[in-house]
Design brief:
Helix 1 runs antiparallel to helix 7, helix 2 runs parallel beside helix 6 and helix 7 packs parallel to helix 11. A 5-stranded parallel sheet has the order 2-1-3-4-5, sandwiched between helices. It is built from 11 helices and 10 strands. The chain folds into 2 domains: 188 residues, Rossmann fold (3-Layer(aba) Sandwich), CATH 3.40.50; 150 residues, Glucose-6-phosphate isomerase like protein, domain 1 (Rossmann fold), CATH 3.40.50.
Length: 369
């Protein structure tokens, strides 16, 4: 899918979203080959760790590792793993700890690998270069370098291309491990390749619909995004894009937990995204949607269902994170444009882009080893 390349494009986020199918088609064979070259043994256990989008990529692919390769897998944010699990979880040479960091400089994820290696686990980094700080502390490295887009020069855009690179490498790794475990992955490899077409279709059929939902919810000042299993990862990613692009509070929530918590929130018409492939979660999603509507929520379903407000092709549930996050990004991009909001608050109000956030010290935080 070609994307516009003229300098008069103002919505750089839309440009990045539209570039994703081409990017997927370019990166997928490269990453499959990379995983094939570097992965020749099977772990007994897996820990996937990261921060922000990297953590969401870990959550999104946890099901793929467990269902395809049949390896017990735990996706955790880097702080939880490093300061808690790395001290008490069973870690040994048959356990792999995979740190995901596109920049390769996030202190907490680096710390997680340092502490896991000290406990005897095998450490891997999924990062953009062999020269990044995280690559230098890991024993094995898988490279996810993503080319820049020329039109976005000087504009820091909410992450999408880097997130998709992490997702694709994790799926390629899961398939490689499944092959080593003796599974037949032919169909899954074809379906992963088909995701390029599914992504293009999803962008084409949802761009105007997402813009319409922006117009219908323009006055809203908070959003809730619900999903379970891999769809909770998509809900988390979608909430992050709304926050990054627009600055609006956006809360990801598990479908079941919504019924225990957000069901009692007092603002009746809060726009609430419901992300599902109508598979394992189908019966509960139907019940919760009825409850949402009964108390006045504006429900925006993202699914292949005929009545879904934002549609995506029916695809295997474990590959859904490659597809169902696209309408959420389109929504965030159109809302930021309609409201005239600068991405990341323009790093104003005491924020700084320096060092990954200045005072937040994402990349300069003390590493406790």
């Amino acid at each position: 899918m070609a994307y516009a390349e003229s300098n008069d494009i103002m919505n750089h986020f839309i440009q990045h979203i539209q570039s994703l199918p081409d990017l997927m088609g370019t990166l997928l064979p490269r990453f499959v080959a990379e995983a094939g070259r570097h992965v020749d043994t099977l772990p007994r256990r897996l820990h996937l760790i990261g921060c922000g989008d990297s953590y969401f990529a870990a959550l999104a692919t946890e099901l793929a590792f467990e269902s395809l390769a049949r390896i017990p897998t735990e996706a955790q944010n880097a702080m939880t793993f490093s300061r808690y699990a790395a001290e008490f979880a069973p870690l040994d040479a048959d356990t792999w700890v995979i740190g995901i960091s596109v920049s390769g400089g996030v202190s907490r994820t680096i710390e997680g690998l340092v502490r896991a290696r000290a406990r005897g686990a095998q450490t891997w980094a999924i990062t953009s270069s062999e020269q990044t700080p995280i690559a230098r502390v890991a024993e094995r490295v898988l490279i996810t370098q993503v080319p820049d887009l020329p039109n976005a020069a000087g504009v820091l855009v909410p992450g999408s291309r880097s997130y998709y690179a992490s997702l694709l490498m994790l799926y390629a790794l899961a398939l490689q491990l499944a092959d080593l475990a003796g599974a037949d992955t032919h169909t899954w490899r074809k379906q992963l390749a088909d995701a390029v077409t599914w992504a293009e279709q999803t962008i084409q059929c949802n761009n105007e619909v997402a813009a319409d939902w922006v117009a219908r919810t323009l006055e809203a000042r908070e959003f809730v995004l619900c999903g379970s299993g891999p769809h909770f990862a998509t809900a988390s990613f979608g909430a992050a894009k709304i926050i990054e692009a627009c600055g609006d509070p956006a809360t990801p929530q598990d479908v079941e937990e919504w019924a225990h918590l957000q069901y009692f929130c007092k603002v009746a018409d809060t726009p609430t995204f419901l992300i599902t492939m109508r598979e394992r979660d189908a019966s509960r999603v139907a019940e919760v949607r009825t409850a949402m509507q009964a108390i006045g929520r504006r429900v925006i379903e993202v699914s292949p269902a005929a009545e879904a407000e934002l549609a995506c092709p029916a695809c295997p549930e474990l590959l859904a994170p490659l597809i169902s996050g696209l309408p959420l990004m389109l929504f965030a991009a159109h809302r930021a444009e309609r409201l005239g909001e600068p991405y990341f608050r323009g790093f104003s109000g005491g924020r700084s882009v320096e060092g990954g956030g200045g005072i937040s010290r994402i990349r300069t935080s003390e590493i406790v080893a």
